[in-house]
Amino acid sequence: MGITPFPNGISSYGVPVLGGGDYPIAGSVFFVGSAHSGVNSPDYGSKALPFATVDYAIGKCTAGKGDVIYVLPKHVETLATAGAITADVADISIIGLGRGTARPTFTLSDTASTIAVSAANVTIENIILTGSVAELVTVFNVTAAGCTLDRVDFHGGATSTIKFLTTTAAADKLTIMNCHHYTTAAVTANAWWIQLTGCDDARILNNTFTIVTSNNAASGVIGGLTTASLRVLVKGNDIYNLGTSCLPLSMLASSTGMLSYNNIGCSKTAAAGAVQPASCYCTQNFVTNVTSTSGKLDPVATA
Fold first, then answer.
1. What percent of the chain has pLDDT above 90?
2. pTM for the complete prediction?
């Protein structure tokens, strides 16, 4: 007996269950897929007849319901303006389907291109981001609480990218996890790849970052700016940061939390001091600035 097709998913007790996720879907479900003849029309949005763009699908969601947007495998989309995708509807999830290079890919094509998250409790999962312009300023602007980026990969290629993500003080409870980011082109401005500004209760977990920043002590991979972030957890990240003066992991003064089990390879002249914890506690962070060698604890162990 063959597999029975369910083009619009299945339901259990009236609740749609799609994609094998961690929990049933309470709200509406929409599909996006340029590789599946997607069209931005109110008559579309199903798996068989998907929308063409994510931003259009967001506009069909209702805040507070737990709506889900599934982005079909091999979907491609060009983001040419600031806020080309603006997640301004609370409590939605945008989930890419597919594995490897078949995952949805979004190309930022202008220096000012961004994805904006301005509503609370937005989750984005399993997508690839890249650039097609000489330099990008910022990929994500997060200005609301409860944002989660899970398996949101950035493949920078020849695009010089100054910052991946910036926050405001309203972006508490930010989670960035299981992401793979790499860049190869030098940038023209000093910045942190992930810039935390008063971002309390943030969690940055189990990511791999291979990032070229400007060669300056005000540049690095994870850092704080302007306002201290409290109760932060930065754990289990592998960080490679080029630049003899860069600070790969540097929390703003008075920031609190825990920095633990991070592995850092860098070209900083003195490997010690690559982790600047401010008022955070530290356990098992290892740093090396020499290839083919094992790292040393940074900061140094307590007596």
1. 81
2. 0.92
